[in-house]
Design goal:
Blueprint (H helix, E strand, L loop, with lengths): L2 E6 L5 E6 L12 E7 L6 E6 L1 E6 L5 E7 L5 E7 L4 E4 L6 E6 L5 E6 L5 E5 L4 E4 L5 E6 L5 E6 L4 E6 L5 E6 L16 E3 L5 E3 L17
Antiparallel strand pairs: 1-2, 2-3, 3-4, 5-6, 6-7, 7-8, 9-10, 10-11, 11-12, 13-14, 14-15, 15-16, 17-18
């Protein structure tokens, strides 16, 4: 497997993840698989296969939202009911991907496909609202559901949006910071610890030329 984007279930008993394929090649619109596996180990259970990816749990652990690319061009957000094994499309979600369910269950945060803008879907109104400014990646909810953290490519910084008034606040500059991620993206993986401290991956390697002496027996 080529495993990306593992996510813990709310009760800490399962981990959902995307298998990108056995070639270790990542394509945004390729054929992927979504599995869950017990935190205690064992065999993974296949949930979905096709142009799917980036699973996120509902707060009660009964549903999983994910992105789906029917034609390999434009994505949409779907929700899988784990009991019925049936999926439904989130209203108005064409062109959205990389969903993140808020801990209070009221919202989905997602990115737009054409330009990685951040948008919020409110379940109560069944409507999306795109937040202003920036080219964003790696959305992550604060555990009180009051903020959405994202990496801002244009400002090369970590920012967060206040859900109540949509105000953007810079948390940290990423100027000169060498991050790592798959896809050779311009920004590395980012998330939050259980107490909402930013956590990311840093490139500490160097580029050198090496010579090896080989001995054959």
């Amino acid at each position: 497997m080529g495993v990306v984007n593992p996510r813990w279930s709310p009760d800490g008993k399962l981990i959902a993840f995307t298998d990108i394929d056995d070639k270790r090649t990542v394509g945004l619109f390729g054929f992927h698989r979504i599995y869950v596996i017990s935190a205690d180990g064992g065999s993974p259970i296949l949930l979905l296969a096709g142009r799917v990816g980036d699973p996120t749990w509902s707060p009660d652990g009964q549903l999983i939202a994910y992105d789906f690319n029917a034609q390999g061009i434009d994505s949409e957000v779907r929700i899988l009911d784990l009991q019925t094994q049936k999926s439904s499309t989130v209203a108005g979600s064409r062109g959205f991907w990389s969903p993140r369910w808020s801990p209070d269950g009221k919202y989905l945060a997602a990115l737009r496909s054409n330009v990685p803008k951040l948008a919020l879907f409110k379940f109560a109104t069944q409507k999306w609202e795109t937040l202003p400014g920036g080219v964003f990646g790696w959305p992550a909810w604060s555990h009180d559901s009051n903020f959405v953290y994202v990496v801002n490519r244009e400002r090369n910084s970590l920012v967060r949006f206040n859900v109540a008034d949509h105000r953007m606040e810079q948390i940290a500059s990423l100027q000169g910071f060498r991050s790592t991620a798959y896809l050779n993206w311009w920004l590395g993986w980012f998330g939050l610890t259980p107490d909402d401290r930013p956590i990311t991956t840093r490139d500490t390697g160097i580029e050198e030329i090496y010579g090896f002496d080989l001995e054959y027996e």
